[in-house]
C-alpha cells in the first residue's frame, strides 16, 4: 500500500519537471532563430548565403 503511492508521486514529479524545461527550450529557439536571420539576412545577405552554402 505504501509502495504504490510513492512511485506514482515520483512519476508525476518527473513528468512535470520534464515538461517544464521542454516547453522553455522549445519557445526559446524559435524566437532567437527568427530574430537572428532577420537582421543578418537584411544587413549581410551575401555573407548569409555564403555561410549557408559552405
TrEMBL record:
It comes from Corythaixoides concolor. GO terms for molecular function: structural constituent of cytoskeleton. Pfam families: Keratin. GO terms for cellular component: intermediate filament. The keyword Acetylation applies. The keyword Acetylation applies. Keywords: Acetylation, Keratin. Belongs to the avian keratin family. The avian keratins (F-ker, S-ker, C-ker and B-ker) are a complex mixture of very similar polypeptides. This is Keratin.
